[in-house]
Design a protein that fits this description.
The complex is a heterodimer of chains A (about 450) and B (about 120). Chain A has three domains: about 190 residues, FAD/NAD(P)-binding domain, CATH 3.50.50; about 130 residues, FAD/NAD(P)-binding domain (3-Layer(bba) Sandwich), CATH 3.50.50.60; about 60 residues, no CATH class. Chain A has eleven helices and 21 strands. The two termini of chain A are about 25 Å apart. By secondary structure, chain B is mainly beta. Chain B has one domain: 2Fe-2S iron-sulphur cluster binding domain, sarcosine oxidase, alpha subunit, N-terminal domain (Ubiquitin-like (UB roll), Roll). Chain B has one helix and eight strands. In chain B, strands 1, 2, 3, 6, 7 and 8 form a six-stranded mixed β-sheet that branches. The chains are: A alpha/beta (about 450), B mainly beta (about 120). At the A-B interface, strand 8 and helix 3 of A face helix 1 and strand 5 of B.
């Protein structure tokens, strides 16, 4: 692959993990390119943060990034990657080939969506999606809104909606009250998180926060008008214009899969220095296991130092201790907010499960492999390439292989021109699709 | 991609129909953003109708605030709108300046941009 740019360390994803990695690597003297699909660094969680906006931690890290000497390339969608040291990105409709000696994968996570009757209606969207849109200026004043799903994300989304003047009708946490209570009791060891949770809950004081409660269906003519909920004993309906759903996060594993990084239980295998089994390739943040912003920052710092050849520097010990503590937090989250069987049984035979190709649940045989399903029904073959229906069906069918659809370039739909060389007219060499992860170090 | 250029004064809530009108457009009916502090505006069209939005607004937010529910029409005919708002799900696809399948959540409104929904 001909290179437009060659760096010591290329980092994919400019969320907390990627930013921390870029800072540490560049401060260690490495040349660094930080690529991100968004229009500015920050990722999903720090979207819209800058010198004067966003949480203090985000402002501090973004300022540090600006000083670090790392080169940030915004609007860059990764098309292909070669473990021999190349990345092909599409930037503003044009190809950009980046050569690297070390690669840090910090691709973050996306929301898991669960199919239920009516989930395809406009104004039924992800809780993280709602948060991103609200931070970008979505006006919800006076709108009737419900938030449903599971996990700590419900709180900041509900608090933000309330602050923006939405009429918050229901915040439904599907986890049973005893699991939520046990999780909350464990928070005394993490006073900062406890304080944050209390502050967020105070932010939507007027709205009910119901544990052991879930949304069973959405209905409306052309857009959401009503949601139905259940707590197992009682059922109810609410006239509602916007429903924000949070059914947990799944790591964005397409790039590590393409590169052949071994993955177990939805997380990239890394060693103590965030090294994957593929030489020169590191991974940090949510793709190594969902554990939140603080963990992403620590893992990013470790990966950045290691990628720049400073794995055993004086900073490393403290970072490793913090990382191990963060892993425990991730495990506690996963245990407290596991999905109850009822929410996995909401889809009816006629419910659409693949939104790109309008494939209904009844069209799929749960015994099929994802490949059989693709060939028979086109499920997972639309533009999202199975990123929505894959994790959904993995949960519904208890079949993790649905999350592991064979990854091949281009990783995202791109203009054909981006797959061709620029002036010479010769094709940029693309690596062959890899269906089976290689475990060789 | 160059940073989105901006035109006009959005306090006036104006929505010039074309780039050429941008410098001389009279105040039109008041926009939906009057409660916010003064900020630069960008004039776009949505299905042919003019709309002024604060500079930096994504197409998805512009459409949602404009009351659009049907961003695209699914294979089976259903209306669809944003689901993930981070470029993953492709449900918010619209046609921008004649180019179909642009993700509204990733595109920032630019002066004179023509957005078509419902395809």
């Amino acid at each position: 692959m001909e290179r437009d740019l060659a760096v010591d360390v290329a980092i994919v994803g400019a969320g907390p993990a990627g930013i921390a990695a870029a800072c540490r690597a560049a401060e260690s003297g490495a040349s660094v390119a930080l690529l991100d699909e968004g229009s500015a660094p920050g990722g999903q969680t720090w979207r819209g943060s800058g010198r004067d906006a966003g949480p203090a931690t985000a402002r501090r890290w973004l300022a540090r990034l600006a000083r670090s000497g790392a080169r940030t390339i915004a609007g860059a969608a990764i098309v292909d990657a070669d473990p021999a040291g190349a990345l092909l990105a599409e930037v503003a409709g044009r190809p950009l080939a980046v050569g690297w000696r070390r690669l840090v994968i910090a691709t973050g996570a996306r929301e898991r969506f669960l199919p239920f009757p009516g989930w395809t209606l406009p104004n039924v969207l992800g809780a993280g999606a709602a948060q991103a849109l609200l931070k970008s200026g979505w006006e919800v004043r006076g709108r009737r809104v419900a938030v449903a799903g599971t996990g700590p994300l419900l709180l900041p989304v509900a608090a933000l909606l309330a602050r923006r003047g939405a009429r918050l009708l229901l915040v439904a946490e599907q986890a049973p009250p005893e699991d939520v209570a046990r999780f909350a009791r464990g928070l005394w060891r993490r006073p900062a998180k406890l304080a944050a949770a209390a502050r967020l809950r105070a932010g939507f004081r007027g709205a009910p926060y119901r544990t052991g409660t879930w949304v069973t269906a959405a209905a409306g003519d052309g857009r959401l008008e009503e949601v139905a909920w259940s707590d197992g004993a009682r059922e109810g309906r609410l006239a509602c214009e916007i429903l924000c759903c949070a059914y947990g996060l799944v790591g964005n594993l397409e790039l590590p899969r393409l590169l052949g990084c071994p993955i177990a239980e939805g997380a990239v295998d890394v060693d103590g220095d965030q090294r994957t089994a593929v030489p020169g390739v590191y991974c940090a943040g949510e793709p190594t296991g969902i554990a939140g912003v603080e963990q992403a920052l620590v893992e990013g710092e470790i990966a950045g130092l290691a990628a720049a050849g400073r794995a055993s520097g004086p900073e490393a010990g403290g970072l490793h201790r913090r990382r191990d503590r963060g892993r425990a937090w991730g495990a506690a989250l996963a245990a407290a907010f596991r999905l109850r069987p009822e929410v996995l049984r909401l889809a009816r035979p006629e419910t659409i499960v693949c939104r790109c190709e309008d494939v209904r649940l009844a069209d799929l045989d749960p015994a099929w492999s994802p490949r059989q399903a693709r060939l028979t029904t086109r499920a997972g073959m639309g533009p999202c390439q199975g990123r929505v229906c894959g994790p959904a069906l993995a949960a519904l069918f208890s079949r993790p292989e649905w999350e592991e659809a064979a990854v091949r370039p281009p990783l995202k739909p791109v203009a054909v021109g981006s797959l061709l060389a620029r002036s010479e007219g010769a094709p940029v060499s693309l690596s062959a699709p890899r269906d089976t992860p290689s475990a060789s170090p | 991609m160059p940073p989105p250029a901006t035109v006009g004064d959005y306090r006036a809530g104006y929505a010039p129909r074309t780039r050429a009108e941008a410098s001389s457009a009279p105040t039109q009916k008041q926009g939906a953003f009057l409660k916010l502090p003064p900020q630069r505006a960008v004039a776009i069209t949505v299905d042919g109708r003019p709309l002024a939005v604060p500079a930096g607004t994504t197409v998805a937010v512009a459409l949602l605030n404009h009351g659009v529910a049907r961003f695209r029409t699914a294979v089976g005919g259903e209306p669809r709108g944003p689901l993930c708002a981070m470029g993953t799900c492709f449900e918010c696809r619209v046609t921008i300046d004649g180019t179909p399948h642009r993700r509204a959540c990733l595109e920032v409104c630019a002066p004179g941009m023509a957005v078509e929904t419902g395809r």
